[in-house]
């Protein structure tokens, strides 16, 4: 997939750690924050222990990798469900065809028995000599001709049923093999997620109170910058909206001056489309807001918890729009628009590998399920920097 992400400038940004534990550390370490908020980046210690910035980046990378593995898990899980349904259908079909094959085989057996009883295999000369009258010969030949036609149909039916049954059995065998491989992918993705999360927690557990406080200060600074960028986007969008309204008012004024009132009141197709989208988006956002505070759980689709794509899928489902399960597919489920033209309800995707998504609510903000250890919340779309935004998609 072609990336729309802006290139990063080395050294201009520190990846974020966004966990409730850090917020708590910030509140309980006010004195430390005042001393360390402007501290210079720490260099690696003499004993080889990584610097605080290196740990912070490593933890952030692990969470990103876990989220990527989560989307792969979601894709494998969805694929497994579809393949299981396909296999079950094929097995049912094989069972029905086997029954028909057995019925065709039984019919062939009845014809063979009939031939034995009627002496159908006796030569014509012997049949003539053993017949009581010429009429008996004629009647017997008529019966055998009809039986021969039915026998041919029975044989053809048996051959057809046997061929189709073998074909379906082969399809079922191949589908079962594919299902087994997909289940293996599912297991691998699950193990990868768990490993990344465990590694991240272990790194965080080794930080001292002072280090956690410094990370909280970094996070607070990042949030302030994200809020500033969101406010700037909101200002730009407000100016753009105002300009559009003024242009529309001038157009309406010109139309009413130069044409009859009936033609000036006509609704344009674009206006109708925007209104329809806004109605659906309002329903999607109402659902998303009702989920705020629920925990992020990888692979979850509600109602008690969500991962990022599970939340956006459920929100738009509430508006009557069906989205695919994963971010990889959701990013292709609509029309891509510039960030500057984002509207409430649009999906905002992040990172080159498209592993995170949120639902835009306006003013540079979104609702999303951030990552393990956090809860569904409102946040600036610049929460991880401007360069982290991959694209904006309008799904309906």
UniProtKB/TrEMBL annotation:
<protein>
    <submittedName>
        <fullName>NlpC/P60 family protein</fullName>
    </submittedName>
</protein>
<dbReference type="InterPro" id="IPR051794">
    <property type="entry name" value="PG_Endopeptidase_C40"/>
</dbReference>
<feature type="region of interest" description="Disordered">
    <location>
        <begin position="163"/>
        <end position="184"/>
    </location>
</feature>
<feature type="compositionally biased region" description="Basic and acidic residues">
    <location>
        <begin position="227"/>
        <end position="245"/>
    </location>
</feature>
<feature type="region of interest" description="Disordered">
    <location>
        <begin position="36"/>
        <end position="58"/>
    </location>
</feature>
<feature type="region of interest" description="Disordered">
    <location>
        <begin position="227"/>
        <end position="276"/>
    </location>
</feature>
<keyword id="KW-0788">Thiol protease</keyword>
<comment type="similarity">
    <text>Belongs to the peptidase C40 family.</text>
</comment>
<keyword id="KW-0645">Protease</keyword>
<feature type="compositionally biased region" description="Low complexity">
    <location>
        <begin position="246"/>
        <end position="276"/>
    </location>
</feature>
<feature type="domain" description="NlpC/P60">
    <location>
        <begin position="278"/>
        <end position="396"/>
    </location>
</feature>
<dbReference type="InterPro" id="IPR038765">
    <property type="entry name" value="Papain-like_cys_pep_sf"/>
</dbReference>
<dbReference type="Pfam" id="PF00877">
    <property type="entry name" value="NLPC_P60"/>
</dbReference>
<feature type="signal peptide">
    <location>
        <begin position="1"/>
        <end position="39"/>
    </location>
</feature>
<feature type="compositionally biased region" description="Low complexity">
    <location>
        <begin position="36"/>
        <end position="46"/>
    </location>
</feature>
<feature type="compositionally biased region" description="Polar residues">
    <location>
        <begin position="173"/>
        <end position="184"/>
    </location>
</feature>
<keyword id="KW-0732">Signal</keyword>
<dbReference type="InterPro" id="IPR000064">
    <property type="entry name" value="NLP_P60_dom"/>
</dbReference>
<keyword id="KW-0378">Hydrolase</keyword>
């Amino acid at each position: 997939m072609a990336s729309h992400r802006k290139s990063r400038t080395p050294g201009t940004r520190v990846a974020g750690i966004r966990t409730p534990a850090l917020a708590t550390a910030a509140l309980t370490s006010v004195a430390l924050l005042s001393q360390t908020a402007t501290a210079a980046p720490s260099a690696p210690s003499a004993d080889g222990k990584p610097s605080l910035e290196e740990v912070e980046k490593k933890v952030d990378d692990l969470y990103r990798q876990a989220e990527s593995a989560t989307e792969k898990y979601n894709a494998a899980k969805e694929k497994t469900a579809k393949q299981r349904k396909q296999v079950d259908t094929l097995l049912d079909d094989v069972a029905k065809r086997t029954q028909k094959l057995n019925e065709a085989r039984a019919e062939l057996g009845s014809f063979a028995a009939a031939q034995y009883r009627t002496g159908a295999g006796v030569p014509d000369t012997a049949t003539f000599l053993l017949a009581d009258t010429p009429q008996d010969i004629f009647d017997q030949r008529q019966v055998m001709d009809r039986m021969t036609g039915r026998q041919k149909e029975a044989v053809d039916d048996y051959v057809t049923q046997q061929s189709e049954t073998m074909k379906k059995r082969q399809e079922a065998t191949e589908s079962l093999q594919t299902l087994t491989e997909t289940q293996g992918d599912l297991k691998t993705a699950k193990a990868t997620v768990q490993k990344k999360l465990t590694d991240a927690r272990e790194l965080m557990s080794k930080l001292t109170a002072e280090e956690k406080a410094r990370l909280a200060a970094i996070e607070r600074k990042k949030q302030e910058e994200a809020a500033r960028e969101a406010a700037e986007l909101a200002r730009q969008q407000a100016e753009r909206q105002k300009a559009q309204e003024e242009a529309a008012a001038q157009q309406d004024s010109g139309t009413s001056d130069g044409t009859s009132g009936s033609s000036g009141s006509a609704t344009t197709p674009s206006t109708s489309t925007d209104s329809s989208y806004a109605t659906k988006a309002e329903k999607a956002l109402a659902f998303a807001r009702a989920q705020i505070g629920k925990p992020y759980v990888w692979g979850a689709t509600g109602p008690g918890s969500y991962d990022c794509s599970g939340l956006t899928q459920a929100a738009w489902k509430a508006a009557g729009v069906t989205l695919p399960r994963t971010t990889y597919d959701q990013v292709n489920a609509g029309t891509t628009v510039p960030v500057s033209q984002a509207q409430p309800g649009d999906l905002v995707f992040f990172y080159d590998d498209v592993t995170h998504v949120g639902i835009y609510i306006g003013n540079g903000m979104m609702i999303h399920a951030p990552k393990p250890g956090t809860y569904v919340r409102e946040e600036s779309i610049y929460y991880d920097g401007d360069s982290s935004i991959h694209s904006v998609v309008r799904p309906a």
